[in-house]
């Protein structure tokens, strides 16, 4: 509710900008991408990286187990080609929304877009290098809709990150102060 009261969101009449902080300090931990397969009921049954996967299987006596299987990706997966499942890339960005009461509360921003993955990954790696880590850097997750020929001119959401400060120096100061406050409090 309070996010909608911010000026950019109020003007647009929907969420277009969310103030965030990264929960993890490294880009490799903050952003993940995997193939996720779902059965006809929409239940997840397999998750893989294009090489290896964890798949849920049910034995004849009804016992559920997770087994390791090769992952061929959605185009070559036997479950997908047989029609038993649908599989897509799942990009997941773990963030904290500014102003949340619980410091351990995290939210996952999800997308199936490879372009979103490449864009956010590049931005996170740049921020990590420039600021010596991702934690406490004031950021904004910006969202907007666009369309193109590849989407048959159907609208889709696009995400990008921006600094949540008036300048890079102000963002650096804010991150440094918050990191020092953690050290002073004994948090590692």
Provide structural commentary:
20% of the residues are buried. The protein contains five helices and nine strands. It is an alpha+beta fold and 188 residues long. Strands 1, 2, 3, 4, 5, 6, 7, 8 and 9 form a nine-stranded antiparallel sheet that branches. It has helices spanning 7-12, 27-30, 78-81, 114-131, 168-185; strands at 17-22, 31-38, 44-48, 52-58, 64-70, 86-97, 107-111, 139-146, 156-163. The mean pLDDT is 89.
Instruction: State the end-to-end CA separation.
Output: 32 Å
Please report the total strand number as a whole number: 9
The radius of gyration is: 20 Å
Q: How many H/I helical runs?
A: 5
Mean pLDDT score, rounded? 89
User: How would you sum up the major sheet?
Assistant: 9 strands, antiparallel
The percent range for strand residues is: 35-45%
Q: Name the assembly state.
A: single chain
The class by helix and strand makeup works out as alpha+beta
Query: What are the segments in which pLDDT stays under 50 over at least 5 consecutive residues?
Result: none
How helix-rich are the residues, as a percent range?
Answer: 25-40%
What is the 3D form? Answer: globular
List the secondary-structure elements in sequence, H or E.
HEHEEEEHEEHEEH
């Amino acid at each position: 509710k309070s996010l909608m009261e911010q000026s950019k969101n109020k003007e647009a009449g929907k969420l277009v900008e969310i103030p965030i902080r990264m929960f993890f300090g490294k880009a490799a931990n903050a952003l993940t991408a995997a193939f996720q397969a779902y059965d006809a009921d929409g239940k997840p049954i397999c998750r893989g990286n294009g090489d290896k996967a964890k798949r849920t299987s049910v034995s004849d006596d009804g016992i559920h187990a997770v087994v390791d299987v090769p992952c061929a990706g959605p185009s070559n997966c036997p479950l997908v080609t047989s029609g038993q499942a649908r599989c897509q890339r799942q990009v997941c960005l773990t963030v904290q929304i500014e102003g949340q009461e619980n410091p351990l509360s995290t939210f996952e921003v999800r997308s199936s877009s490879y372009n979103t993955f490449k864009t956010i990954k590049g931005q996170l790696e740049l921020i990590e290098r420039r600021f010596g880590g991702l934690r406490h850097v004031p950021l904004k997750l910006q969202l907007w809709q666009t369309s193109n020929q590849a989407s048959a001119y159907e609208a889709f959401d696009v995400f990008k990150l921006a600094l949540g400060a008036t300048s890079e120096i102000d963002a650096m100061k804010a991150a440094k102060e918050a990191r020092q406050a953690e050290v002073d409090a004994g948090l590692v």
